[in-house]
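SEQUENCE-TO-STRUCTURE ENTRY
===========================

Backbone structure tokens: a row of integers, each naming the local backbone shape at its residue.

Task: work out the structure tokens from the sequence, keeping to the layout shown below.
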Amino acid sequence: MSSNYNKGFRSVYRLTVHIVFVTKYRKKAISPEILNRLKEIFNDTLIKWECNLIEFNGECDHVHLLIDYKPDIALSKLIANLKTVSSRLIRRDFPSLASQYFYNKPYFWTGAYFVASCGGVTVNQLKKYVENQKSPQE
């Protein structure tokens, strides 16, 4: 088995997802300084969840995260925590954002997000692999 897999008490896994968060009203509120701070916040938060930030980048109105997570974590709860913590800390560290971009409201991210599972093989490759398994003989 590949060393790219993680091992749990009763599992071997590799769960990787691509997540996109968009700023509220799609405002162009992310500067290079804010982007660097977001990376720190996401990395620290993911460490607390025993997850791994594989890659991070963004533009002025959205960010991309590529993360590895554990199978016992509810992905929706992890994402909600990432958004809540990052929004709170960014608004604390950059207090002018609310007045400059968000009409003095306590916002940073839109309520929605994008998430897609990803891995080393495609669904078609997995389908062919499963189809080609030898069935037990009677």
Remarks:
- The longest strand covers residues 15-22.
- Helices lie at 32-48, 75-93, 97-101, 123-131.
- Residues 14 and 129 are 18 Å apart (CA to CA).
